[in-house]
Design brief:
single chain; 254 residues; alpha/beta; TIM Barrel; 6-stranded parallel β-sheet; 3-stranded parallel β-sheet; 11 helices; 9 strands; 18% strand
Length: 254
C-alpha cells in the first residue's frame, strides 16, 4: 500500500496549482497511490471553515482514499480555532490537525498563539502536524517542534517537509530533533533527495514517510523518485514502511 502523507486540496480553482478532490483521485490512480493524507491548500482569505468542510466532504465521498486532516490559523481567534479543532476531530472524524507557522505567520511554540491550540489537540489524542521548513526557519524551526514533543510525549507529531520547502534546507536539525524525541516522524516532502537518504540512514526506516506535496509537486514523479531512492538504500520491508506502513501505523489504519 502506498500512502501519500502530504496532499493539499482546495475548492477555489482560481490558483494555478489548485486541485479538486476529483482531480486528486485521478492523480492517485495514475500514480498508484492508495490513500492520501489531505489538508487544505493555502492561501485563503477571511475564513477557514469552508475549506476544512471541503476536506471533510472529500473524505466522505472518497472514504477509502482521502484521509482528512484539519487546519487551524490562530489569527482567526484562539477560541474560534479551538472550536474548529473540536469540530474537525469530533464531528468530521479527522485524523489530526495541522499548523503552518510559515503560511500563517506565527511561531509554532508561541505561548499565546499556538500552545493553547496544541493543548486542545493533545486533549483529543489525535495526531499533530507542523509545516517545518527553511522557507520560514525562525517560526517553524525543528527545535520548536522538539520543545512541543517534550511537553506532549504522548502525541504523535508529523514534521512535514522535515526542514525543506525551500532551495536550502534545515533537515540536519530536523533529524537531530527526531533522534531525541521518538514521538516525531518526518514527512519527506518538498525536500532534497540527499536529505531523505540521510534521514533514512540516521533514523532508520520507521521514522520517515513518503509525501509528495501535491499539487505543488507532481505526485507520480515523486512516487518514481522515492522508488528510485529506496530501491538503492533499503530492503523491501523498509520500503513498505516509508511508502505507507509508517503513516498507517501512526494513524491506526489497518
Amino acid at each position: 500500500m502506498i500512502i501519500d502523507a502530504d496532499v493539499h486540496l482546495s475548492p477555489n480553482l482560481e490558483g494555478s496549482t489548485n486541485i479538486t478532490a476529483e482531480e486528486l483521485i485521478d492523480m492517485m490512480n495514475k500514480s498508484g497511490v492508495d490513500k492520501a493524507v489531505t489538508w487544505l491548500q493555502p492561501p485563503y482569505m477571511r475564513e477557514i471553515d469552508t475549506l476544512n468542510r471541503y476536506i471533510y466532504e472529500a473524505s466522505i465521498k472518497y472514504q477509502d482514499r482521502i484521509l482528512g486532516f484539519g487546519w487551524v490559523d490562530p489569527h482567526f481567534g484562539i477560541e474560534k480555532s479551538k472550536d474548529a479543532i473540536k469540530r474537525c476531530i469530533y464531528e468530521y472524524g479527522f485524523y489530526g490537525i495541522k499548523l503552518n507557522g510559515a503560511q500563517n505567520s506565527f511561531f509554532i511554540d508561541d505561548p499565546v498563539m499556538s500552545m493553547p491550540l496544541i493543548e486542545e489537540v493533545a486533549k483529543t489524542g489525535r495526531v499533530l502536524a507542523f509545516h517545518v521548513g527553511a522557507d520560514d526557519y525562525e517560526r517553524t524551526h525543528p527545535y520548536r517542534v522538539g520543545k512541543i514533543a517534550r511537553m506532549y510525549p504522548e502525541i504523535d507529531i508529523l514534521m512535514v517537509h522535515m526542514g525543506g520547502a525551500a532551495f536550502n534546507d534545515i533537515s540536519s536539525a530536523a533529524i537531530e530533533i527526531a533522534k531525541e524525541y521518538k514521538n516525531i516522524t518526518l514527512i519527506g516532502s518538498a525536500i532534497r533527495t540527499r536529505s531523505i537518504i540521510k534521514a533514512i540512514r540516521e533514523l532508520g526506516t520507521e521514522r520517515i514517510c513518503f509525501g509528495s506535496d501535491t499539487p505543488f509537486e507532481i505526485m507520480h514523479v515523486e512516487v518514481a523518485r522515492y522508488n528510485s531512492i529506496l530501491d538503492d538504500v533499503v530492503d523491501k520491508q523498509g520500503k513498505k514502511n516509508i511508502m505507507g506502513g509508517n503513516i498507517a501505523r501512526i494513524l491506526r489504519i489497518s
